[in-house]
Design goal:
By secondary structure, this protein is mainly α. It is built from three helices and no strands. The radius of gyration is 34 Å and the shape is elongated. Keywords: Membrane, Transmembrane, Transmembrane helix.
């Protein structure tokens, strides 16, 4: 309401007629009001989220997402470890064969 009043006063050109203290307080509130609205909205969202997480549905969904995350993490980790082991074996075989060739040449 104060923000709308401030906007209408500025638009109609009546803002300059106000006392300096009133101007200052209106400017301050006009700049601060969106921030406070944002804070209250964020607080409401966080409150709603907290209630949801503490509810049984939230707990079950959290558990399912945790299991899914761990399963995906395990699959990728095991895949990369297997790939790394395979690469190491291949590299080892190449090294062994090149060492054998060097020894044969001597």
């Amino acid at each position: 309401a104060v923000f709308t009043t401030f906007y209408l006063l500025v638009r109609r050109g009546q803002f300059s007629k106000l006392a300096p203290v009133v101007k200052f307080s209106l400017w301050t509130y006009a700049l601060y009001a969106p921030y406070t609205a944002g804070v209250s909205i964020r607080m409401a969202v966080m409150d709603h989220l907290e209630k949801f997480i503490l509810s049984m549905t939230g707990k079950i969904l959290f558990l399912i997402s945790l299991i899914a995350f761990l399963a995906i993490h395990w699959m990728f980790t095991s895949h990369y470890l297997r790939a790394a082991a395979l690469f190491k074996l291949t590299f080892q075989e190449r090294t062994d064969s090149s060492l054998e060739q060097i020894q044969r040449r001597r």
